[in-house]
Amino acid sequence: MNTFWSKSVQSTELLDTSRKEKFNENNRKLWFNLLHIRNNLKILEVGCGSGHFTNMIKAYYPTCQVYGVDLDSNHIKFAKNESKKLNLDVHYQVADVKDLPFEDNSFDIVFSHTLVEHLPFDDFIKEQKRVLKTGGKLVIMRIDMIKKNDKPFLYLEDEINEIYNGFTYPKRPNVGEYLEDSDTTMQKLNQYNFKNIKLNYDRIIYYMPDAESNKKVAIDQIERNYQTKLSYAIFETDRCKVDAETKNKLLNLLKCQYEERLKLLNSNKKIFDFQSSLLITISASK
pLDDT tens digits, residue range 245-257? Predict the structure, then answer.
């Protein structure tokens, strides 16, 4: 059973909270449009992680057949449980992107999110092209981590960062090793005879509670942001073998930060902190 990613790079819980923060009820139409989702399609996500994208697709497009594969068995176990809780019929299984367990020409859409940068392009693309129907859509998504444009909530941020700076981080082998420019990816797709190759850059602003007219949405943003920070803290303290006292201090600081942010929102004190991601989407037809 392969659990490298969930134990060494990003826990399933952290992956799930992070994806739920960025892909949610308020911006789903943008994501669905970028993925070319419509009714009655057969859709595969390679590297599905916690299953959040696939579950969202099935929830809003119930006539679609939706599949998710991931090499990490902890991710697939989590995805199956989430799908069952939501009463969604999504097909999940452990599988290697280099050896997909599907017949040729099976899917209308094959997509991935933050996967292409982690393995050689030939390994990444060959099987996806094989299982994609003629005329079907390939969609590759990744986050541009360089062009960040965030304004964090600064309350207790120095104290929190001081704790993180004291960690001894173990090496993460092969993570992001094959990151390349978008034009290189498009050139390679062209070499694989894909057609209609297109590029989209979209700034996803997923956290800006003071700009929300709906207070419930604002509170949801603050809570999702806190859950992501909490999942990250738990994963990194465990991965770095941090002592219990330091871990508890960090978790308490995060809780105090979260409570202060809610307090400011409820007292109508606007500080306009925000978080965003630059989403790069490359799509092509077989």
Answer: 999 999 999 999 9
Q: Check if the beta carbon of residue 55 is closer than 8 Å to that of residue 90.
A: yes
Q: Give this prediction's pTM.
A: 0.94
Inter-residue contact 86 to 16 (CB < 8 Å): no
Q: How far apart are CA 11 and CA 195, in angstroms?
A: 36
Query: Do 193 and 131 form a contact (C-beta atoms < 8 A)?
Result: no
What string of H, E and C letters represents the secondary structure of 86-127? CCCCCEEEECECCECCCCCCCEEEEEEECCHHHCCHHHHHHH
Question: At 250, phi and psi to the nearest 5?
Answer: -65, -45
Domain count, the chain: 1
| pLDDT tens digits for range 81-140 | 999 999 999 999 999 999 999 999 999 999 999 999 999 999 999 999 999 999 999 999
By C-alpha distance, which of 78, 43, 70, 76 is closest to 58?
43
Domain that holds residue 204: 4-285
Residue 190 belongs to what H/E stretch? helix 182-191
Domain CATH code at residue 271: 3.40.50.150
